[in-house]
């Protein structure tokens, strides 16, 4: 059933009425029902892409982020219950280095698995629109990691966030909003240093964050072989994926990020597919190392990265720690249209002569010690010794049933706005009024100021997730 934009906005306002809206990067208190930015429809072009992929407008989504590639992927569940890639978005700016966030003020964008609920969606952001990543999750907290206000937002400015253009975040925000209307209680955000491929693991083999990244790769592989959102739990200061009670057990599993793991098992078909993928990946990594694959430099001093599509549009800009595809160059990328408006205050990363060095003759133990992303407070190697093996990149023959999403995110208080490039005035109602309230769809790959076109729901096919009543879908959220 179609709903008018006003009715839909009022429904969402009612759902969020009992919880304080995240201020995020803003101090305005504008009602969602009157917020045109937050209620922009999904573009007809993207709706048509959903139809081609057998997806419903309001089916669940899943988001993956990759720093090195500077890409954000939106995956969406089709009518068979399997997640497919809907669209990839180039990231305009991310800050820090490859590796997880450790402490408040380190400028690191987080890495890990997070859950985004309706209460983390911020229609009142100083950065056009945003959603809170939910950092720190239970795993981060168990290691004493600190930080707040880590967002995915617009305005192409980052201090520990993943920054898109305003046009991009408007579309991503709308996709999240529609999934909540369809009954999804929270969507999963997976943030990675790079795509978890053998080539990247060979290139970064001497990085002290490698044990942590191997742990993240296990969850990455669970999604790769099942195309289902992996169930995420935490115990013994580590991630656990798709854990289920052992046969014959009638008691639900109880997890605590700082406590001993309960006895659990992983479905045999998933476990076998992940083991096989891991085996093939490790064989390939060993081959690449034996061939002398160059090693990524440590401690480059470069602050984050920018997708080549954006860097090519800024004089003397660089992609920083993000890669330019082998078949591209900044000169070639300059012919591509930027997906949105690049603000004049953008602060691109500084260039580097070479991010790779020849493969070292000495062992990795002699590599200069960098900031270590420990997966344990004492011994990261010992931490992973008893964990299940991560999986591989091949496709499983059987597709498991969808698993329930996990929500571990918390809401945070406003943080000061980052400074990058030329200073920007703090957002007020007057400042917000000085810029266009709506951004055009990024589907057109243009920076024109034409308003977004209206769209409707997709007809045909039974809903993947039962809607029940709107109020009951959000009754558990404060």
TrEMBL record:
Pfam (any one): YkuD
Active site feature: 153, 161
Molecular function as annotated in GO: carboxypeptidase activity; transferase activity
Protein name: L,D-TPase catalytic domain-containing protein
Pathway: Cell wall biogenesis; peptidoglycan biosynthesis
PROSITE patterns: LD_TPASE (PS52029), PROKAR_LIPOPROTEIN (PS51257)
Positions of the L,D-TPase catalytic domain: 61-192
Coiled-coil positions: none
UniProt cross-references to InterPro entries, sorted A to Z: LD_TPept_cat_dom (IPR005490), Transpep_catalytic_dom (IPR038063)
Keywords: Cell shape, Cell wall biogenesis/degradation, Peptidoglycan synthesis, Signal, Transferase
Biological process, per Gene Ontology: cell wall organization; peptidoglycan biosynthetic process; regulation of cell shape
Signal peptide: 1-23
Low complexity bias spans: 394-409, 422-433
Family: Belongs to the YkuD family.
Sequence segments annotated as region (Disordered): 380-478
């Amino acid at each position: 059933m179609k709903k008018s934009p006003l009715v839909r906005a009022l429904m969402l306002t009612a759902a969020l009425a009992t919880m304080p809206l995240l201020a995020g990067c803003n101090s305005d208190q504008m009602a969602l029902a009157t917020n045109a930015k937050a209620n922009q429809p999904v573009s007809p072009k993207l709706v048509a892409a959903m139809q081609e992929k057998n997806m419903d407008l309001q089916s669940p989504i899943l988001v993956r982020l990759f720093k090195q590639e500077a890409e954000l992927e939106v995956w969406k569940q089709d009518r068979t219950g399997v997640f497919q890639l809907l669209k990839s978005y180039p990231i305009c700016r991310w800050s820090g280095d490859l590796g997880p966030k450790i402490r408040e003020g380190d400028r690191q964008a987080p890495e890990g698995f997070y859950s985004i609920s309706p209460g983390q969606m911020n229609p009142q952001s100083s950065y056009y629109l945003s959603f809170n990543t939910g950092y720190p999750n239970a795993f981060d907290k168990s290691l004493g990691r600190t930080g707040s206000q880590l967002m995915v937002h617009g305005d192409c400015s980052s201090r520990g966030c993943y920054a898109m253009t305003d046009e991009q975040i408007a579309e991503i925000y709308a996709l999240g909003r529609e999934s909540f209307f369809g009954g999804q209680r929270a969507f999963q955000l997976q943030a990675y240093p790079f795509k978890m491929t053998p080539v990247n693991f060979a290139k970064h083999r001497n990085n002290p964050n490698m044990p942590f990244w191997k742990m993240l790769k296990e969850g990455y592989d669970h999604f790769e072989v099942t195309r289902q959102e992996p169930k995420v739990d935490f115990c013994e200061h580590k991630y656990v994926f798709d854990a289920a009670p052992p046969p014959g057990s009638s008691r639900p599993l109880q997890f605590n990020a700082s406590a001993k793991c309960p006895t659990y098992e992983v479905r045999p078909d998933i476990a076998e597919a992940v083991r096989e993928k891991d085996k093939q990946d490790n064989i390939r990594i060993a081959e690449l190392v034996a061939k002398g694959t160059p090693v990524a430099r440590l401690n480059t001093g470069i602050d984050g990265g920018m997708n080549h599509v954006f860097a090519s549009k800024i004089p003397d800009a660089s992609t920083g720690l993000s890669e330019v595809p082998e078949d591209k160059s900044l000169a070639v990328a300059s012919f591509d249209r930027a997906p949105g408006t690049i603000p004049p205050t953008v602060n691109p990363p500084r260039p580097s002569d070479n991010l790779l060095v020849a493969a070292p003759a000495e062992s990795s133990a002699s590599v200069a010690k960098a900031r270590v992303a420990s997966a344990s407070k004492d011994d990261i190697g010992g931490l992973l010794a008893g964990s299940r093996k991560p999986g591989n990149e091949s496709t499983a023959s059987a597709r498991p049933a969808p698993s329930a999403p996990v929500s571990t995110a918390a809401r945070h208080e406003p943080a000061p706005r980052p400074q990058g490039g030329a200073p920007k005035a703090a957002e007020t109602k007057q400042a917000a009024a000085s810029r266009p309230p709506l951004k055009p769809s990024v589907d057109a790959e243009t920076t024109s100021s034409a308003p977004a076109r209206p769209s409707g729901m997709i007809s045909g096919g039974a809903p993947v997730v039962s809607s029940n009543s709107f109020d009951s879908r959000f009754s558990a959220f404060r």
